[in-house]
Amino acid sequence: MVVCVRERRREMGIGKGVGGSRGEIVVEFLIECVVVRVMGGLVGMGVGLGGV
């Protein structure tokens, strides 16, 4: 997650620059992290079940 924050630092700055609050930026970042992890988990389960 730390690597993801470092990669997204510029986008977070742009979000603050256009008027986004810190809370809105954090919520957006956390939702994106959850979605990516769930999708990765589903793909992993699909590969695992397909390989059995």
Defining traits:
52 residues, 3 helices, mainly alpha, 85% helix
**Strand coverage percent:** under 5%
Which class do the helix and strand fractions yield?
mainly alpha
Count of alpha and pi helical runs: 3
Separation, N- and C-terminal Cα atoms: 31 Å
The pLDDT mean sits at: 85
- Count of β-strands: 0
Total count of domains: 1
Report on the structure:
- The chain has three helices and no strands.
- It starts with a helix and ends with a helix.
- The protein has 52 residues and is an all-alpha fold.
- It has one domain (2-50).
Short structural summary:
The protein contains three helices and no strands.
What is the element layout, followed by pairings?
Elements: H1 2-7, H2 9-17, H3 22-50
